[in-house]
Amino acid sequence: MSTDVQTDALVAATIDAMPLIDHHCHGIITEPLDRAAFEDLITESDWPAPDGTTHFDTQVGFAIRRYCAPVLGLAPFASPEDYLARRRELGAEASERLLRATGISDYGIEVGHRGDEILDPDGMAAAGAARAHEIVRLERLAEELMLEGCESSAFREAYDRLLDERMQGAIGVKSIAAYRIGLDFDPSRPSATEVDAAVEAWARGTTADEPLRLADPVIIRHLLWAAVDRACAIQFHIGYGDADVDLHRCSPLLLTEFLRRTRDSGARVLLLHCYPFHREAGYLAQVFPHVYFDVGLAINYTGSRSVEVIAETLELAPFHKILFSSDAFGVAELFHLGALLFRRGLQQALDAFAERDGWPADERSRVAELIAWRNAARVYRLAAPAAAAT
Ligand SMILES: [Zn+2]
User: Fold this and answer.
1) Sheet harboring 20-25: ordered strands across?
2) How far does residue 271's CA lie from ligand 1's centre (Å)?
3) Domain annotation covers residue 388
4) Ligand 1 center to residue 27 CA distance, Å?
5) How far is the CA of 204 from the centre of ligand 1 (A)?
6) What is the 363 CA–ligand 1 centroid distance (Å)?
7) 26 Cα to the center of ligand 1, angstroms
């Protein structure tokens, strides 16, 4: 065995054993899932696969059969039928096995999306034997106030109060401005008069028979500035997501002026997923001191190609600006693969730098640790995971 092979193995072992802070994810569904429900959770499409085809014929589908099947006691590449039958047979244990093998020490759980169907942070902490922290969805809080019949004239004050209250138990906020108004929104802070008028119009346009959905740009800008005023850690959905998103309005570069204006606010801006704009996100993370990013969702969905996507995140972005997330929602498989593919991709990218430019093993391990948990612990002011080497 050459020394290079030995040091590569050493770095690989270190990366495999590192705790991970999953700074953006969601709860899992504990109800038994039939094939259609499971397939719906392993794609960002809102539609079933066309007749005679399956969402298992994808990078994520192959990765589930390759890496999750053995965790459930099946051979790699078990058929989707056998996999789902075994999953049902094991019940809650299937999710526990998949979650507990990830080495994730902390979940940052966003509870605003389909919150009544998924495990809450306490439930996730128990299922995964990990710490769980709440991330509050800004737009959801405004919708809660409207549902409660909050008077338009009292909205701003009520929102401030509610946000302060929720932030007592949360580590950050998330905005889905990308989904609701696109990221090409006016970066300026709206005036109180503008906000009051927009809330009034929203209330007037709301009818009891339609689901409540905040899509007013003035109100959403107001919510973002409320989070900036509180120097929150603010997560933004960026890039790839479900069919509800206009991807061409989700480049993080559209946030450039907003980022300039918030640079000295104390707020930290976390660009989520970012694919296929992760190189743009890397640029922003380099030039703005308060900008961080991850490629969470893209790791699972690019499967075998996630090695290259992860390597691309290590181009412009300083290593103290890159975070790990799974963005898993609904099924424990996405946590499992998120962690496994992330560790593998990071290790292979760093090995390639070592081969090309002689990066020492201890430096590779140090960079990996920043991305695995140290950066997230710093941004969200979390205690170091218990499993972390000091
Ligand atoms: Zn998410």
Assistant:
1) 20-25, 104-110, 131-137, 170-175, 233-238, 268-273, 291-293
2) 11
3) no
4) 10
5) 30
6) 31
7) 6
Report the C-alpha gap between 258 and 91 in whole angstroms.
46
Expressed in angstroms and rounded, the spacing between residue 35 Cα and the centre of ligand 1 is: 23
What are the Cα distances from residue 82, in Å, to 65, 69, 70, 73?
10, 9, 12, 11
Cα separations (Å) of 113 from 22, 102, 110, 134? 17, 23, 7, 13
Tell me, what amino acid is at 72?
Answer: L
The C-alpha torsion from 146 through 150 and 151 to 153, rounded to 10°, is -90
CA distances from 210 to 111, 147, 205, 206, 215 (A): 22, 12, 10, 8, 14
44 alpha carbon to ligand 1 midpoint, in Å? 11
47 and 163 belong to one structural domain: no
Output the CA 90–ligand 1 centroid distance in Å: 27
Q: How far away, in angstroms, is 83 Cα from ligand 1 center?
A: 25
Tell me if 95 is assigned to some domain: no
pTM over 0.90: yes
Q: Where does 101-172 have alpha helices with state H?
A: 121-128, 138-147, 155-167
The answer to whether position 98 is within a domain reads no
Which whole number is the average pLDDT over 141-151? 94
**C-alpha span between 358 and 97 (Å, rounded):** 38
C-alpha 222, offset from chain centre: 23
**Is residue 389 assigned to a domain?**
no
CA 373–ligand 1 middle distance (angstroms): 18
Domain encompassing residue 353: 3-26+103-380
226 and 79, same domain (yes or no): no
Q: Distance from the CA of 328 to the center of ligand 1, in angstroms?
A: 7
Same domain, 75 and 109: no
pLDDT digits (tens, 9 = 90+) for 300-323: 999 999 999 999 999 999 999 999
- C-alpha of residue 24 to centroid of ligand 1, in Å: 6
Q: How far is the CA of 389 from the centre of ligand 1 (A)?
A: 29
Which pLDDT tens digit goes with each residue over 52-107? 999 999 999 999 999 999 999 999 999 999 999 999 999 999 999 999 999 999 99
Domain count for the chain: 2
Cα separation, 199 vs 381, whole angstroms: 34
Compute the distance from residue 110 Cα to the ligand 1 centre, in Å: 7
Q: How confident is the model at residue 1 (pLDDT cuts 50, 70, 90)?
A: very low
Q: Is there a single domain that holds both residue 273 and residue 334? A: yes
